[in-house]
Amino acid sequence: MAEPGDVGRVGCPSSVRPADDIELRRLRADRYFRDKDVLDIGTGNGRLAWLIAPLARSVVGVDPDPEGIREARREARRRGVSNVRFAVATGQTLRLGYELFDTVLFSWSL
Amino acid sequence: MVDALTEAHRALRPGGTLIDLRPDSDHQPRVFRGGRAIGGLYEQPTAVADSHFSDRAVARLVRDGQLRTIRSGHFWYALPPMDLPTLDGWLAESQRLGGYTRGTHRLLARDPGRPIVVKRALAYGIYGRV
What we know:
The structure holds two protein chains of two kinds. By secondary structure, chain A is of the alpha/beta class. Chain A contains three helices and four strands; from the N terminus they run αβαβαββ. Chain A has a four-stranded parallel beta sheet. Chain B is 35% helix and 41% strand. In chain B, a hairpin with a 2-residue loop joins strand 2 (30-33) and strand 3 (36-43). At the A-B interface, helix 1 and strand 4 of A face helix 1, strand 1, helix 2, strand 4 and helix 3 of B. Strand 4 of chain A pairs parallel with strand 1 of chain B.
């Protein structure tokens, strides 16, 4: 069941997601992000990418929603983060090449 | 989804990790008021079917020896308390959720101003690329 403090937020029109840190905290997956090259499929506005970036060597966030990616890029500039990039793409249209990432995260997108 | 998984598998280095995190269609959202469970919400049949399709796609990669399961499970989280009109509005916009389970809305409507808490389950799977 939900633990104290695991309160989400009402936000997306199609779904209601937990507050970002809940997902990663409950996933207990920091070891799969630390010093890794990470691909975040379904990144949205980068909500999880921002939490992964301080751990990771690099993060690439992709999402089919151009507005989400625009917002993510604006936020990247605002934060001055250098190890995060964003691109408009779906999982199906990714043409990334072979063996580029240590971790692939499907975030509400598979 | 199969294409996305194939691309993701190809983009992973050997020994890399694939993490799948999404709403848990096997544990439907629950509705609480005053700390008591009083009903639930249900997912659209298409959302459930999509979720099961994804489950099978991942299972196929595991069965074929391309991925190995490191761990999997689900966890619950609570949404912020809301009133009935807010919950109605959210459900009306949701592409995933279809509505209230039988009797839930009737119980909620008796006292529409009291805060409602919805708890949802997220399923996760962590897999290693073989």
